[in-house]
Amino acid sequence: MERPIFKPIGTPVEELDTPALTLDMGVFEKNLQIVHSFFKKSDAKLRPYVGTHRTPALAHKQLAAGGTVGGVAVGTVGQAEVFVNAGVNDVLITTVIPMQSKAARIVALAHRATMTVVVDNVANIDVLSKAAKAGGVTLNVAVDVHTRLNGTGVEPGKPAVDLAQQVAKADGLEFAGFHSYEGAIPGNGEAVAKESRKWIQKVLDTREAAEKAGLDVKSVVVGGTHNYDIAAGMKGVTEVPAGTYALLDERYRTQRSELKSAASIMATIISTPASNVAVGDAGMKSCGNDTGLPGIPGRPDLSISYLSAEHTNFIMDKAERPFTLGEKVRLTPWEIAVTCNLYDYMMAVRNGKLEAILDVTARGRYR
Hints:
This protein has helices at 25-40, 56-64, 77-85, 100-110, 122-135, 158-169, 190-212, 228-232, 250-253, 284-287, 336-340; strands at residues 20-24, 45-46, 72-74, 90-93, 114-119, 139-144, 173-179, 219-221, 239-240, 263-274, 277-280, 303-307, 312-315, 328-331, 345-350, 353-359. It is α/β, with parallel strands linked by helices. It has two domains: 13-22 and 257-359, Beta Barrel (Lyase, Ornithine Decarboxylase, Chain A, domain 1), CATH 2.40.37; 25-247, Alanine racemase (TIM Barrel), CATH 3.20.20.10. Strand 5 (114-119), helix 5 (122-135) and strand 6 (139-144) form a beta-alpha-beta unit. The longest helix is centred in the middle third of the chain and has 23 residues, at 190-212.
């Protein structure tokens, strides 16, 4: 666990110890206002995927913003435990759980919250059924449908319906509906809409087949930040588990132009070894660097050549002005979920001053 140098509330953001994960609360709240207002007017509702930021304080703000199902989605049992312990009473775990030990932990949570788990094979059903019976609870179960990516899920259509029937017959389980993650679809406009509808329709066709087979399908959970409006506009979709919309990142910055980057890494320029090079004190260990480089908001004249473990190298060939030693610079993460997982604390800032220090309680909760 990191041991940050905490500064008093009201400290200017430029005086924070770096590297620091900062969150502009004004931008965060504006992102919520835009997306949640959309879902308030939609038949489908938002289920915030809080495994992105891993911060209970932000999850409660999302639920309070309206337009949601009243619960959240997470990726792991460990994350679910954090959010239930923080007072969230409705959680969807979007990862298949084949282990009896993890099923027992979900059952323990089901005594305090409504728990929904996804399955994609009969073995999953057996594990959850045994645990639910032993714990004296009922678990909601959604069938995970494989669509666009090579991830988890049973094939749409008859295979998914057959598995749903197995869920409906299992002791201790309640068939909830269907879930699918078609994955972030790159691009903009009609190309994204067409590709999204293609895959989501497979899940909706599966729902229709299940209802014809006599099953009660309460939910269809599909979509994400990249296509939340498209998914919600398709008749039969009930929930959209979007997550990145709240803080945003470089991946979605141009794709979702109505939203702004609320989270950034505050770094300090620690060296200018050449006239066209500057080095900052935030590298892969503080920014993440799995699939893309950070952005530099407000400085289109700069570029990043690479990140080392601890440093960012800036190229200033086209810089309107050079960096000076000790100058602060903001970096917007390529993928915010990866970046949030690197920090124990998030510095909430409003109007350029520290407003609160938030615990990223679910960081590192992989199990």
